[in-house]
Amino acid sequence: MRDGTKLRVGDVARMTGKTVRAIHLYEELGLLRPIARSPGGYRLFAPDAVERVAWIGKLQAMGFSLAEVQEFARSLERSQTAPLAMLKVRGMFEQKLKDTRSQLARLRTLESDLEQGLAYLEGCHWCDPAELPENCTDCAKHHEVPPPLIVTGMHRT
User: To bridge 45 with a disulfide, which of 49, 70, 101, 104 should be the other Cys (CB 3.0-4.6 Å)?
Assistant: First the structure.
């Protein structure tokens, strides 16, 4: 650290694994604020800036956009009381959990579709190499079950 407890933007970037440009962007969005400027004009941040950047990254990993993180931070700053602020946080987290569960359900459906498609296509390696591709989406030669939609949709119309 430079200046005892103050970090330059490059220090924050290096300590968080973010780019200097990302740190500047967080500052431009009001998500991160320098506590001072060095005599050379460099932005200086408190050590807790590292934790703040990690928090921003965590929210992004949870699916929040930077605009949402910005609104989230502003909402907290505008709150009249700590309980009110935490109520807002709780509401945002509840909505994100609902969205995440919905996304997981869509991904489980996709997983099942892909597994069914792959299981069906497993029998295709026994097919005659001279077979025409248009016959591949509804082959009764090597399959006892009808093809799943992920396979039949390949049929030319």
Answer: 49
Position 12 in a domain: yes
Whole-number CA gyration radius for the chain: 27
Contacts of 13 (CB under 8 A, 6+ apart): 19, 20, 22, 23
Please write the tens of the pLDDT for every residue from 49-65: 999 999 999 999 998 99
Tens digits of residue pLDDT in 114-149: 999 898 888 776 667 777 766 665 566 666 777 788
Least confident of 7-16, 53-62, 73-82: 73-82
**Would 110 be classed as within a structural domain?**
no
State the virtual CA torsion across 11, 15, 20, 24 in degrees, nearest 10.
-90
Q: What's the token pair of residue 117?
A: 């498609």
**What CATH number is given to the structural domain containing 47?**
1.10.1660.10
56 occurs within a structural domain: yes
Q: How many angstroms separate the Cα of 147 from the Cα of each of 23, 68, 115?
A: 51, 43, 12
Domain interval for residue 57: 1-64
Q: Does a structural domain hold residue 77?
A: no
